[in-house]
Specification:
519 residues; alpha/beta; 5-stranded parallel sheet; 3-stranded mixed sheet; elongated
């Protein structure tokens, strides 16, 4: 009876066997290959980096290259007896030790006794210690003695996911090489190549989600791909992917995102109720929503589509882009980040989640303390230059009398907004804009001294923009408008609708206003 061929896990089956097959670690490969070509082999290397990025694989390739009978330009041939035996894990001069289960001083002493002797078969004795940070301090100190005076033709490769836990004395005696997190695009390409080779039916969307949840670990992504492919005979359905990974359907996350943006409180409650009744994990939902807003902030600030964006996300981001400022989205993300611990520990996650989602609605209209102090209210910032009794179409009457182009002030403001948005807010407080032959005067409302000082500080910026627009130098003057009766500080605050509402809600009153002395 013919025996069935032994099954090999995908992550093991596609483990790189040569330096040229290593994914996204060219800096590591170059250093090691240059050492092999020149014969400058150090006695100790530290391979650090997150899980699943190739530390152990590269250590084995390096061990093969050191002992290969027919190396070519720093690459092991993969065909000689030494290469084959190292690949199969039975080469006597390559020892792989798990630092987590062999972490005591006795195990290190045994290792020191073993490496005293010359290599039995190869050119080098290679000791690979995985998760070396798990060694006890006593074991580290015993290992240090060996690293100070290593036996000839012995190479240590110390692999760790927590480099900061390795003793500085060990680091100082080693060459430390940091393995990078593998980018989304690299992982996705590798998944596509392997799924095609293995004849696994999988959508591009599913590959993107697998690459995303693996968070830079190629091994994790391959394990997920294999796990899901075994569920339905090498067919990966999108809904199956969500079920196995425990993810909430992307459309549900997108709906919640839209409900928050549209301030649709009723549908938020209905959706969280449906998630609860379906038995979904609220914490996973919360993490997915956080990532949704993280991507939205990226799109808002850079106006770019990140490679991890799904089609649905891109459409929603374009639809809602202009509803919030980048600062407001950042405040929402900060709120979500701070609430993560509370949700994780809460005994009633459903109702806490309802409260947190409602907070995301209220944050959109919330005023900061600085807004209340200075009166720089958002709605005023977003409005064009205010009309007054001496103005028309937002441009002071003096400008119209001079026959000046009414769009000039708007052009200045728009150009400033492109370069320094916060400076353009202060231009909302310009009451009059007057041009003489070589002079421009910005008259600021008398109760907006803060804006006056800010514009004075940015005088060079404004002069430069004016020169760009008119191709001539102007003398810029900033002054306070003084043609009206000045109100007291209390009167100015009580005139502000937002502050009046704030005082009404909390039954408060303005008791005292402290002003900083001008230096």
């Amino acid at each position: 009876m013919m025996e069935k061929s032994k099954y090999i896990a995908i992550a093991r089956k596609y483990r790189p066997q040569k330096f040229s097959e290593v994914i996204y670690q060219p800096h590591i490969v170059k250093i090691l290959q240059n050492g092999l070509k020149t014969g400058n082999i150090h006695h100790s290397y530290i391979f650090s980096g997150m899980r699943g990025v190739g530390k152990t694989s590269v250590a084995r390739i390096f061990a093969k290259a050191l002992n290969c009978e027919n190396p070519m330009d720093g690459e092991p041939c993969g065909k000689c007896s030494s290469c084959i035996e190292i690949t199969e894990g039975r080469f006597p001069d390559v020892l792989e030790i798990d630092g987590a289960s062999n972490r005591g001083i006795d195990q290190v002493r045994e290792l020191r006794e073993t490496i005293k002797y010359k290599p039995l078969k190869g050119k080098y004795k290679v000791i690979i210690i995985d998760e070396v940070h798990m060694l006890t301090n006593e074991a580290f100190n015993a290992l240090l003695k060996t690293l100070e005076e290593p036996p000839p033709n012995t190479v240590f490769i110390l692999a760790t996911t927590e480099f900061h836990k390795v003793l500085p004395t060990v680091v100082s005696r080693s060459i430390a090489l940091d393995f990078r997190r593998i980018p989304f695009s690299e992982i996705k390409n590798q998944l596509r190549n392997i799924s095609d080779t293995e004849q696994i039916e999988v959508s591009d969307w599913a590959l993107s989600r697998i690459a995303e949840v693996s968070e830079g670990s190629l091994r994790d992504s391959l394990s997920i791909l294999e796990q899901i492919s075994l569920y339905d005979d090498k067919k990966i359905k999108d809904e199956t992917l969500n079920n196995i990974l425990g993810l909430i359907d992307e459309e549900v996350i997108g709906d919640i995102f839209s409900f928050i943006m549209d301030k649709d409180k009723k549908n938020i409650f209905n959706t969280t109720k449906a998630i609860y009744e379906a038995g979904e994990d609220f914490f996973i939902f919360y993490k997915q929503l956080f990532e949704y807003f993280r991507k939205f902030l990226y799109y808002k600030e850079l106006n770019e589509i990140e490679e991890t964006f799904s089609k649905n996300q891109t459409e929603l981001f374009k639809k809602h882009k202009d509803k919030l400022s980048g600062f407001t989205i950042l405040r929402m993300l900060n709120f979500l980040e701070k609430g993560e611990y509370s949700l994780k520990k809460s005994l009633n996650k459903r109702y806490l989640l309802d409260i947190m989602l409602l907070n995301l609605i209220y944050i959109q209209d919330a005023l900061s303390i600085e807004d209340l102090k200075t009166g720089e209210i958002k709605k005023n910032r977003e409005q064009p230059l205010k009309k007054n009794e001496n103005s028309a179409n937002g441009i002071p009457a003096q400008v119209k009398k001079a026959g000046y182009d009414n769009s000039f002030f708007g052009q200045i403001k728009e150009r400033i907004r492109e370069k320094k948005e916060f400076v353009s807010f202060s231009l909302n407080d310009v009451a009059d804009f007057i041009e003489e032959e070589n002079t421009l005067e910005f008259r600021i409302s008398s109760n907006r001294k803060t804006s006056l000082e800010l514009l004075k500080k940015e005088k060079d910026l404004i002069e430069g923009i004016v020169k760009e627009l008119k191709n001539k130098n102007y003398r810029i003057i900033f002054s306070l408008e003084t043609n009206h009766i000045k109100k007291t500080s209390e009167e100015e605050l009580y005139d502000d609708e937002n502050i009046k509402n704030f005082l009404d809600i909390f039954k408060g009153e303005i008791v005292k206003i402290e002003k900083k002395e001008e230096k």
